[in-house]
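Please produce the structure of this protein holding fructose -6-phosphate.
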Amino acid sequence: MCGIVGYVGPKQAYDYLIEGLFRLEYRGYDSAGVALQQAGQIDVRKKTGRVSQLAELVKVQPVTGNAGIGHTRWATHGEPSDANSHPHVGGNGEVVLVHNGVIENYALLRDKLTELGYVFRSATDTEVAAHLIAHQLEEETKLGSDPTLAETCIQAVEKAIKKIKGTYGLAILFRDVPGLLVAARLGSPLVVGIGKGEYYLASDASPLVGHTEEVVYLNDHEIAVITADQFQLRHQNGGSNAKHIKVLEQAAVDTDLGEFEHYMLKEIFEQPTSIENALRGRLDDDEATAVFGGLNMDPQKLRCIDRIVLTACGTSWHSALVGEYLIEEFARIPVEVEYASELRYRNPPMTDRTMVFAITQSGETADTLAAMRECKRKGHPTLAICNTVGSTIAREADGGIYLHAGPEIGVASTKAFTSQVTVLTLLALFMGRMRNLSYPAGKRIISHLREMPDKIRQTLKCYDAVKEVARKYYTAENFLYMGRLYNFPVALEGALKLKEISYIHAEGYPAAEMKHGPIALIDEDTPSVFIAPRCGIYPKVMSNLQEVKARRGPVIAIACEGDDKIADLADDVIYVPDVDEYLQPLVTSIPLQLLSYEIAILRGCNVDRPRNLAKSVTVE
Ligand code: F6R
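Below is the modeled complex.
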């Protein structure tokens, strides 16, 4: 969470900072701020609310300078307020910084610094870092052993961050050293963009697009020392680190809404294309299998894998559940789906031949990254299924598969989910064909996968029907979502989508579990969404649906085109194309995305920026 930008060079820094903050706003939008250095002083402008509100403030109170930092906040410690907004000032203004991450020992440090006379103006953990560096700077200056003030400042940062427990991406300016920008990373991503006589800093590559193609990603414990004419990379324990310059692969961020009112709707309608992109070049008709360029594992080793762990958070965790069913069915390999936030601290037994996949849209989710690192540390092959090229998880994984879904800007994940499911289907096919899956079975899966973009196009035609259903139920305060087998994770995902953007309480369940408790929630005001396309246990799902109707619960069914019987039972039906069972999540999830979107709109919610959420969860 939280977006960071920085600039040092000949231009006015503010232009890059504000543009970068707009691009990073998906990481948090509780408040925003900038600090610009000019003529021996640092001017700070910060404001609760969106980046646009900061831009308005700066119009009235302009700031200038060739070095600057900026921040867009997702609040962790301290409510969203002007005082808690970044940048924060340390000491008597000699240090100004922005921070992403969580300083876990902030209370202890705050007490110590208060005793030393430092005055805190915010409730944030970040302000501790600002005063700590200012204090260290004072100590270093007293020692008077270093040749330049710049070097003293850098050493103050090195010493201060050693006292911090937790995670940080820090960008720091020093009032008395014009043109010096210091950045430090532990757990929260930072990337330096190399320009001609200028350098850019950002917490992910999106602000750099269009400014430079050469980037250096900071590793944990590294410190970047940046001036207009040079950039050094150091290890926090001293000594310089080699800079691994990478070419930025990202295309310009597509922020054009086109005919759509919101990114979420645009991204829902992009799914025929994003699924096509996930499949492109990965279907091998001759061998009836899937091909991946970046797994980086030799077939011998892959053939010996006896267990797969899929780890993820949120929507990506739901796609992992679909992946479990797919891989176990096609490849007959036992699969465990683990919440990354649990796996990172758990110690589940894993065989020597367990392979781990971290599934993530952003590639920056702190828990997923930590779980992946823990598995890697134990020596397991650890791969990523990831959308964001160059993200920390993509870089640190041993190999992986990109989604190629294009940037997902709406905070509620939509196209990333269906792309993840598509890639997991390819993975199941690939692993299956290494084992028991026959050639004809492989061919059949390939031909069905090829049809999916068109099937999704057809599915999207349900939008008018969805709008009607939304109008009927948008005032409900509780929803239940139910599905079985491949549609159980879809039920979870449908409930999550509704919760996060319309703030309606919703629960997803395997339909047959309902009678073990949740059935008590059924009443005339609680709609149940049944995901009930034709499948091997369709009659069983119908019985579950009848149990709800018997208790006068309204039922919205997601059913296959041509299923007239269900219309007699359900209050409302949204039809989707008939596809094989294992591909159903790709079509049944779409009306649920649209339903949550429409309900949120009718309730006047901000679908692209739902309250309390951020697109990229980079804190624990
Ligand atoms: C829900 C949503 C979140 C993310 C979760 C993991 O719509 O977007 O639940 O799925 O925060 O994010 P990634 O996939 O970036 O690791």
